[in-house]
Write a structure and sequence with these properties.
227 residues; 36% helix; alpha/beta; binds 5-O-phosphono-D-xylulose; TIM Barrel
């Protein structure tokens, strides 16, 4: 797994939104690499969270990489506002982009953001291959390990087959996993080949978030040494 960096991204969905800036600062002090921002429209998923105005407010307080996961039906509408707001990564869902993914990726890149594609647990992994192999490719694949919409759900180990297939095919791709990740589930994800780890409740709910971040990182780095 040469060339992929262990990246730990606390999911700010589990933070205290009323104190977002200080929660973000705390996570970065604890060793987080990215801040994972879950943008939901109440349509693609049955939950409504934040959008560009909140990213813009947070951007005033931090230079951190803001890893935005768009759980929305019309990702195209979000590119311009999120770029202006200061988003760093823009990951849209393959299920809503069958027709226009090339346009999406080109626009995301043109706005200086890192393009990624996510897939729901029920979506076959083959659907993302063309996006990774395109002339203007996505640079990250987010394998959802729970149904998108809410934090605190149970990790789905059967999703690791998707991660293994991706890692085998694309040794230097950023492969992100999201949902139910924590000290008890990280080893299976890391050994399957995931290198970007999103974790919400296991980090924010821990007596020592710093220790959890460190356990996640060590597991990913350890798995890379073995491969
Ligand atoms: O995208 C999502 C949920 O849709 C995630 O980012 C969750 O927020 C992760 O939370 P935990 O499962 O780690 O609590």
């Amino acid at each position: 797994m040469a060339g992929v960096k262990a990246t730990i991204a606390p999911s700010m969905l589990s933070s205290d939104f009323a104190n977002l800036a200080s929660e973000a600062e705390r996570m970065l002090e604890f060793g987080a690499d990215w801040l994972h921002m879950d943008i939901m429209d109440g349509h693609f998923v049955p939950n409504l969270t934040i959008g560009a105005p909140v990213i813009q407010s947070l951007r005033k307080h931090t230079n951190a990489y803001l890893d935005c996961h768009l759980m929305v039906t019309n990702p195209l509408d979000y590119i311009e506002p999120l770029a202006k707001a200061g988003a760093s990564g823009f990951t849209f869902h393959v299920e809503v982009s069958q027709e226009n993914w090339q346009e999406l990726v080109q626009k995301i890149k043109a706005k200086g953001m890192k393009p990624g594609v996510a897939l729901r647990p029920g979506t076959p992994i083959e659907q993302v291959f063309p996006l990774v192999e395109a002339e203007a490719p996505v640079e990250l694949v987010l394998v959802m390990t729970v149904e998108p919409g809410f934090g605190g759900q149970k990790f789905m180990p059967e999703m690791m087959d998707k991660v293994r297939v991706l890692r085998e095919k694309y040794p230097s791709l950023d492969i992100e996993v999201d949902g139910g990740l924590g000290p008890t589930t990280i080893d299976v994800a890391a050994s399957a080949g995931a290198n970007c780890i999103v974790a919400g409740s296991s980090v924010f709910g821990a007596p020592s978030p710093q220790d959890v971040i460190s356990i996640l990182r060590k597991s990913v780095e350890g798995a890379q040494c073995k491969s």
